[in-house]
Write a structure and sequence with these properties.
The protein is built from eight helices and two strands; from the N terminus they run H-H-E-E-H-H-H-H-H-H. It is mainly alpha-helical.
């Protein structure tokens, strides 16, 4: 979803190819030739293919710098990448943990795992709240850092994460949902 958001933000045409992930279409030989990890997304352009959303997004920024989604200064660019890394390593795993448990039949769910992951997420929100103290987006201007969080912020309601105690995070999430590119998240989540 994140790479499709970048494509939309940059107003680049693309073909969306939907794989049947539950039936492991991404593990078929033809797909593994594009991405040996068998994960999505893969970005294929004439003469290049890239996998892993952060790398796909950097490739798109390098190749199509119009509608910049990365700060031009090296220090700010590094800070933006740190936010993307923090999202991937800290914010995403507990969301996936809750979703994994919620998808199990009720009798097999471990409520302690759900509660534990929700608590981990709740403990992370003050850092985002502080970063958004005097700005609308993580880097001031809308950037790849915000894009990294977008699909996962969209899941907060689904996983029972209440943002009411974090008004800046809640308003930021609403701003992200109001962007035209959010349509790709709705498609990706089947919303």
């Amino acid at each position: 979803m994140r790479t499709r958001i970048v494509l939309k933000e940059k107003n680049l045409p693309f073909d969306r190819i939907v794989l049947d992930l539950p039936n492991k279409e991404q593990k078929q030989e033809w797909y593994l030739a594009l991405n040996p990890y068998g994960k999505v997304p893969v970005l294929v352009e004439e003469g290049a293919w890239v996998y892993e959303s952060a790398l796909c997004n950097e490739y798109l920024e390098d190749k199509y710098p119009e509608t910049a989604l990365v700060p031009p200064e090296a220090g700010a660019k590094a800070q933006m990448r740190l936010w993307v890394e923090w999202c991937n390593s800290q914010f995403v795993p507990p969301i996936i943990g809750v979703l994994y448990e919620q998808r199990k039949p009720a009798a097999e769910r471990v409520q302690e795992k759900i509660t534990h992951n929700q608590a981990k997420l709740h403990a992370l929100l003050p850092r985002l709240e502080q970063q958004l103290h005097s700005q609308e987006y993580l880097m001031g201007q809308y950037s790849m850092a915000d894009i990294a969080f977008t699909p996962f912020l969209a899941l907060c309601d689904r996983i029972g994460l209440n943002l009411e105690d974090f008004p800046r995070v809640r308003r930021w999430a609403e701003r992200l949902k109001n962007r035209e590119s959010f349509e790709e998240v709705k498609i990706g989540l089947g919303a």
